[in-house]
Amino acid sequence: MNRIASGLAAVLLSLAPLGAGGTAIAAPTKVKVFIASMFEIGANTGDRAGEFQHWYERYWQKSQPHEARGALKPVYCDGDGVCGAVLGMGKVNSSSSMQAILLDPDYDFSQAYFLITGVAGTPPSRGTIGDVSWGTWLVDYDLGHRWAPEEGKPGEPVFMPRKGYEEYRVFKLNPALVGWATRLSAGVNLQDSESAKQYRQRYLDEKARAAPSVQTGTHMTGDTFFHGPGLSKEAQYMAKLYGADDYVITEMEAAAITLVIKRQFGTDRILSLRGAVNFDQGNPNETTLQHLDPAPGQTAGGFAETVANVEAVGSRVVDHIVGNWGEWQKGVPPLPAK
After folding, report:
1. Is the pLDDT of residue 19 over 70?
2. Are strands 214-221 and 247-251 parallel, antiparallel or unpaired?
3. Whole-angstrom Cα distance, residue 298 to residue 76?
4. Is pLDDT at 318 greater than 50 in this prediction?
5. What separation in angstroms does the CA of 51 have from each of 43, 56, 181, 274?
6. CB 3.0 to 4.6 Å from 100: which of 17, 70, 273, 291, for a disulfide?
């Protein structure tokens, strides 16, 4: 190192914040995209893949885990600003992890995009096993009043919104960002399985019997694992009641995570991406309880293919944002003309 460069390095070091021991404190990692998964089945690599494994294998195999105090699992980051973690299942579990990570001083999320990912259910009238869905709206299923059907008028809804939750029971995600996501993921070759193909034929709906595809619509967040045609109809009623798009996905985390992010950074840079691994109701020849507790060999199949599909679709968007960071850094660019 020459004398001028050596002197400049010394000046820069002297200007850096110092820790208690007099050593320079590293600048926080500037996060470009944060990928949130809800669970992993075993290890992060080398065994049966859950929601996180394909992301880990694509971006973080050479990365070191970072413990964020209060988060369920470590955070991983690559050298390009792509970070991610397993947050935990359910609204409280996942949102508390997200809050802990956002407050960790080792990260700078001021310009970050957030990709909330995982598996989910779908109504057979709107989707099928293996579908991958971009959320246009997020609706919280639990914030309201409910009563038993026999305690109301026959055939009428048994749900009523509770006052006071207007600001956080429904979120419209940035249409321009969702538009980019659907455009970038068009043409992705989605995997399918023979077991899923056979299972779909138990249903009469055209959507349920179709091959997997990329969809858009409302993602319904509920800690309650609602199931059956009656509650599926109720979820669709809620989506329409709130002015959202058709309910297409039932999941357990996205609205809660979005609220945590919103309070610090808004919602303009949030995407919800889910893969359908089950229908939210049984076929015409089985009861709801039979569908919830199937006999051995009677499950839908297609789980492995669906989690692979989620990563294949989502990574298109992640790689585009990071690869064109100059255009995305300050906000979502306008969609190009078709």
Report:
1. no
2. parallel
3. 37
4. yes
5. 11, 10, 19, 10
6. 70
